Amino acid sequence: MNAPPRNMLPRGPYLLCDDTVLPDVPLVDKAARLVAGGARVVQLRMKRTPPRAALAAAREVTALCRRAGALCLLNDRVDLALLAGADGVHVGDEDLPPEAARELLGPGRLVGVTVRGLEGARAARDAGADYVGVGPLFATMTKQVGAPVLGLESFAEVVKGSPLPVVGIGGVKLWNIGKVAATGAHGAAVVSDALLAGDISERVRQLVAAFEQGGAGD
Ligand SMILES: Cc1ncc(COP(=O)(O)OP(=O)(O)O)c(N)n1
Ligand SMILES: Cc1nc(C(=O)O)sc1CCOP(=O)(O)O
Ligand SMILES: [Mg+2]
């Protein structure tokens, strides 16, 4: 596999390696299964992992992604991204602001920001972000999100008007990822549909194929 440029978000499924879903499997094992299936971008989301274990996981997952030619982004934690040499971060309203993340990370790494609509996407662009995560696209059981479900139509409007590449998140599954791709979205973030599949790598392969098909207009 050709390695993507480290400062550009690859198109397609965007996989979260999350400690709240399938919590008994170590993060490094989950990440290994995700990249074995062809994940080109992995976000390490650690909400429950204590700091020293989180640093170790950030280092191991970053190294593992790099060997596989995938990008590794840290959820929330700019400090861990720097220490691990990760490819960037994803921040939301409860995290450091994107301007601060950019100041710490410099221009060569990715900063993603959660937004709920077009106004947020424009603000994220002005704050120096590289892409926006837009959700909740569909209903999700993985996280209680304090914003209404967008649905495909409103999401497509955001994709159309956004000055930054859009990654949809929330309730993205194998059966609907093609519809997300068909809106022109740059990416589709997936947590439970991949991590709770019996065979994580096989599910990632299917997600990649379905995104490609949907994006091709089929
Ligand atoms: C790609 C992507 N989009 C949105 C989010 C949500 O981030 P945030 O709002 O900071 O919420 P937490 O993930 O920290 O609970 C995301 N993680 N990834
Ligand atoms: C982490 C997260 N953020 C969201 C948002 O809308 O901001 S939805 C979400 C969880 C998405 O999980 P799943 O793919 O299992 O539905
Ligand atoms: Mg966050």
From TrEMBL:
Pfam families reported in the protein's UniProt record: TMP-TENI
InterPro entries on file: Aldolase_TIM, ThiamineP_synth_sf, ThiamineP_synth_TenI, TMP_synthase
Residues given in the record as Mg(2+) binding sites: D76, D95
Residues that coordinate or bind 2-[(2R,5Z)-2-carboxy-4-methylthiazol-5(2H)-ylidene]ethyl phosphate: T140, M141, T142, G171, V191, S192
Co-factor binding details: Binds 1 Mg(2+) ion per subunit.
Keywords: Magnesium, Metal-binding, Thiamine biosynthesis, Transferase
EC number(s) per entry: 2.5.1.3
Keyword match Metal-binding: yes
Residue intervals passing through the bilayer: none
Cofactor(s) listed: Mg(2+)
GO function terms (MF aspect): thiamine-phosphate diphosphorylase activity
Catalysis: reaction(s): 2-(2-carboxy-4-methylthiazol-5-yl)ethyl phosphate + 4-amino-2-methyl-5-(diphosphooxymethyl)pyrimidine + 2 H(+) = thiamine phosphate + CO2 + diphosphate; 2-[(2R,5Z)-2-carboxy-4-methylthiazol-5(2H)-ylidene]ethyl phosphate + 4-amino-2-methyl-5-(diphosphooxymethyl)pyrimidine + 2 H(+) = thiamine phosphate + CO2 + diphosphate; 4-methyl-5-(2-phosphooxyethyl)-thiazole + 4-amino-2-methyl-5-(diphosphooxymethyl)pyrimidine + H(+) = thiamine phosphate + diphosphate
Binding positions (4-amino-2-methyl-5-(diphosphooxymethyl)pyrimidine): Q43, L44, R45, M46, K47, N75, T114, K143
Location of the Thiamine phosphate synthase/TenI domain: 15-193
Metabolic or biological pathway: Cofactor biosynthesis; thiamine diphosphate biosynthesis; thiamine phosphate from 4-amino-2-methyl-5-diphosphomethylpyrimidine and 4-methyl-5-(2-phosphoethyl)-thiazole: step 1/1
Function in brief: Condenses 4-methyl-5-(beta-hydroxyethyl)thiazole monophosphate (THZ-P) and 2-methyl-4-amino-5-hydroxymethyl pyrimidine pyrophosphate (HMP-PP) to form thiamine monophosphate (TMP).
PANTHER family in UniProt: THIAMINE-PHOSPHATE PYROPHOSPHORYLASE, THIAMINE-PHOSPHATE SYNTHASE
Family: Belongs to the thiamine-phosphate synthase family.
Protein's recorded name: Thiamine-phosphate synthase
Natural source organism: Pyxidicoccus parkwayensis
